[in-house]
Structure formats: structure tokens, C-alpha cells
Fold this protein.
Amino acid sequence: VNSIAVASPEESVIDADAALADLYAGHYTRLVRLAVLLLRDQALAEDVVQDAFVAVHQRWRRIDQGTAPAYLAKSVVNRSRSALRHRGVVARHRPEPPGDAAPADAPALANAQRGVVLEALGTLPTRQREVLVMRYYLDYSERAIAHALGISQGAVKSHASRGAASLRQALAEETR
Amino acid sequence: MNDNDDLRQLFHDAISEVRPRGTYDEIRSRTDKLDPIARRWFLPAIAAAVVLGFVIGGAVWLNRDDGSTATPSGQHRGVVKPGLKSDLAIFYVGEGAHGPVLFYETHSLESDDADDTAAQEAASGAANDPDHVSYWPKSVAITSVKLQNDADPTIRIYLSRSAAGRPAGVTPAEAERQVQAIVRSAQVIHATTTKDDQGSFVQHDGPPAEFYVGDQRQDTVLGVTGPRFTGGGDAAQAPVQVTSVVNGETVQAGDLVVKGLAATFEGNVVWELMLGGDAILDSGTTTAAECCVLSPYEFTINNLRPGTYTLVVHDTDESGTGKPVNQDTKEIVVE
């Protein structure tokens, strides 16, 4: 799943349009779900993932095409982090919303179990959340996570260990 | 069954009902709207060559063992001693619990001018630890660094071209730390130490810095407003740092003494040793020499057996709410 087929032995570079179609078919759903775990907002997650696909298409000749899915996942994680940062800045400068306004995609996120897990994930520091989601949703190795996030494997281990402990505690509190 | 398989299952269950909206055609319509120019393949511009004019000869030497040239916090600065390689304190940007902070590494470099070499290494040298980075733009070289030792001393850092703008993808906080990393690396060479009335050592930061392109002073660097820039003092530095072990270092089996710097609540420092996975093999606590200001700590890990370990040293979460803590991690190979 983590690689895409090359059209022919003679063709070392796949056409960007064809590659985009393959990547969309194979990875779009998984990446949106990844972004939902990071952002807790499906509409924003879809925006982030679509932006990543557009960027990959735009830079197709400049990236290592054999690792395009990993490039996409890394791009989604980085863009999610930026989106969270932006959302934090906007929230600090926005007046309080009237009443208990639910987000636009609240029905889609109504599932109780999902809500509990996403809420618990949301309490973690960004880096711990990223490491946990890449480790246990994407099934990335520590080495791959370290490479994608630009941190050491030691830091990955530490974030995973501390993140798992904090998540279990947060889940216990959410379900109490 | 892996201990964390339940997390794997939880994550998959949590998003199994998510049905993504947005079609392939919608993405294609966005790619088609892009300016055709933006889709062309351009050869990268020729990068300016950064020539580090190292001249072997009059080298700068930093005494690491007798402490005579180390600052009270254990960071080293330069003493000219020809014929030896230099050990220079180089600062890089890393992650702290509340944003980017500076981490200190010792780099052994050949140089005839510690100021130049330290600032250049902080800008474009490779950090020993993958958690430490430089956000300095590759297209801008630091050509020289000069101390203006007059009544109001300043360090002049000369650039090959303007670096006024903040690089893409770099946050304002990261940019500020990067400027501080450059300044601090040059500044620490000129730092002085005095004794106060109680006989305690007091470290004074070196002079502030100004950036120049030719004879034009640069009032803004990486989006950070000057014209005088400081290294940020201890407040800019990572509250927990390991300084005696380099990431990836091979050490002998047996007892390992670990040294570092910490500015933590009540001087508390926690260490954990991991072997494979994320299981903690051993752990312990120690205290730094002083509370709340960057000061030395030390602990010993006993009876280390051959293997590859991860050492994590961190402060404590005094809130008890699982808030992020400051940490430094090192991979250690024991033979």
C-alpha cells in the first residue's frame, strides 16, 4: 500500500496526473482519517489532505516518487500542525461563540467512542499526538517516524512512552 | 499481543466511521487552476558557496577538563592556544515544552578565529543530535565575525547578503531562537565570569551583536527586529540538557557518568533508560546544583551491559496533569 506502481520499465517518471489518481485511490481516505485523529475536525482534515495532494502534484518531479505516500503523510502531519497553530491563534482573537454552538460536522463525529478517543488525543501535546498516531494508526516504525518528524529515534521512543501513558490516563478520566 | 495493540485498535475504531468528502476531480480542478508557470520545472538557483576559511595553525583551544575556561553553567568558551583543535560551544534550536529553545553542543573544529567558526557552525554546520536544527537560510553565508572592543563592545556578524525575511515554514519563535543561536555561539566566547559578595560565580553574557552586509547594518534578521541582538540568556536555553554524552556515542560497558545542565523546579532532574521499544529499563532522579537557574547536574548509571539504549533526561510535571516536560534524549551504544 505504501508504494505506487511505475507505468513501465522505460518510464522512470510517472506522469503527475496519473500518479495523483493512483495516490488518491490508495491513500485519500486513510490520510483524511489520519488528519481527523490529529485535528478532531473532519472538514479541516479534508482541506489539509487536499492541500497536500495539490502540493504533491505541483512538486511531482522534485520529490522521490517511490516514497510519495510517505511524503504525503509527512505533509499531512506538518500541515495539520500548522492548521492547529493557526486555529489557536484565531481562537485567541475571536469573540466567544454564542451558546454551545456545535461544529459543522458534529453529526459526523457524534459517535461516542470516537469522541472519547479524539478528545483524549486532543489533550496530548502536539508531538506526542503525532508520534502516537503515526505509530499506532499508520503503523510506522520508530525510524520512519523519526525521519518524517525530523527528530531522533530516542525522542520518538520518549514521546511514544509518555504519550501512551498520558492517553491511557486521559481515556480513563473521559470514561469515568 | 503487544501491550499497545489496544491503542492501535482504539485509533482505528475512532475513525472507522469517517467517510471523507472531496473527490479526485475536485483536487484535479485545483491543480488545473494553478498558474502554468508554477508547474514548470526550474533548475534550482545556484547556491552561494559557503567557504569556511579554516586555516590550520593558530587554533583556539577550550579547556574542558580543569574548568578554568568553563562558565559556571559548564558551557565552554575560547582560549587561544595554537596548534590544537578547537572545542567550541555551538547552539542549535530544539523543542522545549513551551516552544523552541536553544541546545548546546560541543564541536571540535579547526579554526584560527573562534568567533567566525562558531557562528558559521551554528548557521550551517550539522548538529550532532537530530533533535537539534538550524533554521538559518542556506543562501546566506556568515562571512566573518568581529568583536568591536570599544567603550560599548558589540559583536559584528557579517553576512554575504541580507537575511531580513523569515524563511518559509519557520515560525516567528523559531526564527528568534535561530538568531539567538548564532549570536550566542559567538557571544559565549567573550562571556566573562566574576564572583559576587558571597563568593559565588556569576556569568555575564558576552556583548550583544549587530548584523552587517558590507557596511550596511541590518536592522531586521529572519524577521526579528534589532538592530542589537542578544543570545537570549539562560531563558532561551533548554531547561534540561545532556552535555557529556553525544547522540550515537559508543561507551564502554560498566558505569556511565552523565553530566548536563538543568533549570528545573527545585533542581529536580529525572532520567530514564530505554532498551528497544519504549519500555523503561532503569530510571532515577538527581538534582542540579541550583534551583531554577541553569546549573550542572550529574548522575551515574550503574552496570550498563552491551546494547543500544535511549537515555531520556527530563524535568518534572509539577502540575500533575500530564503537561509536556522538557527533555533531552541520547542514543547510546554500549560495548
Summary: Confidence is low (pLDDT under 50) at residues 1-13, 95-110 of chain A. Chain A touches chain B through 59 residues (CB under 8 Å). The two ends of chain A are 38 Å apart (CA to CA).
